[in-house]
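Please discuss these two lines.
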Amino acid sequence: MVGGADAAEVAEQLERLGAEAAGRAPAPAAPDPALASAAVRVAIDYADAAELAAKAAKAVQALRADSPPMWRMLRVQGVFLGRGAPGKVAFLYTGQGSQYVNMLHDLRQREPIVAAMFDEADRIMTPLLGKPLTEYIFADSTDEAAVQRVEQQLMQTEFTQPAVLTTDLALTRMLDAYGVRPDMVIGHSLGEYGALVAAGALSFDAALEAVSARGREMASLSLGDPGAMAAVSAPLAEIERIVAETDGYVIIANFNSTSQAVIGGVTDAVEAAVAAFKAAGRDARRIPVSHAFHTTLVAPSSEPLKVALRRLDIRPPRLPIVSNVTGAFYPPDADVDTMLDLLGRQVASPVRFIDGLRTLHAAGARIFVETGPKKALHGFVEDVLGDDVLALFTNHPKTGDVASFNQALCGLYAAGLGFPTLTAAAPDTAAVAAAGRGR
């Protein structure tokens, strides 16, 4: 990472860095804390000397051209530009649907913080599941049959929910070790429980029990037609129009972004809507779920869920947290009954994620960090809020556990965050994260 008083100074530093890296990359090291206050900062994730030299050259070009589109493309490659003081930070917690076999496998192998999180989840969930939670997540990648078996298990709601929650919060703990903490939080569907933990409203133990109960209540629903869901890519106004014109019960169950939503309802009506979208030239696909979540079809699970949640130690949140039901912050003086009502309604109510993102932005959030598997929420942020914000993701299987997290750290460093004095308690990657090594 380099920083300076202006773009010209930083470009000169990058040119020198690129020339030096042509033969040998700098030794892995956390960035100089003094760079946090630099007027202009550039952080680069790299695997070797050649990659560093190539990316440094691209960053010089983008700085001298003063080209925002070039910087948008460079972000995808792990090259980030930051100026001035950082804005407020919002953490976004991923929900069901982003899970995959062996998520966080490499970080779990390398990082005691992550390993401890999964050990804790196993301790809590083994009595509830009959075996450790990790046996529903991890498999020998060389054993195709084992991978397929775990993949099928992860499709089952009662296993998916605690698995995703644990992954979300393991990444939260990793970020915390670098001194990166949220000013406000939001979750998507199941992810609201991760957000509640981050906001201090639930302990990890209680949240695991809560999502386990949530998953069981959903899975145990006995309906003649459990319904269906489909993801649709189209302008939101068009999605709303076609859904309104479709006969039968079908609604927008997830208002994800201005160009993507999930519809849900009775199976025949959802299939009719999918056909109408395809006839209009839009991409619409059924998604593999057991029930039409966030529709009235699953409303019978709301009251039993509230009963299960009431016995847990749920507390008023210490951080601002957005409710999926309203798209607004939980009331600052929310009591237990108010919180239970919102969480009970959440199961059968549409997820108003667009409204939630706008609520966070209006409250000053400018850095949005997705803490969970894959990067769906990262894309929704960019679509809804545009270039006014920095959206980062911390995990994706195509990028790899370590590289994904390192790239997120580089984005945070460039923004002026994540510069604590590292101690022996910090993650093993503390010395290498800025360099993106260890892939």
Notes: The two ends are 19 Å apart (CA to CA). Residues 421-439 have pLDDT under 50 and may be disordered. Residues 157-177 form the longest helix (21 residues). Residues 1-84+401-439 form one domain.
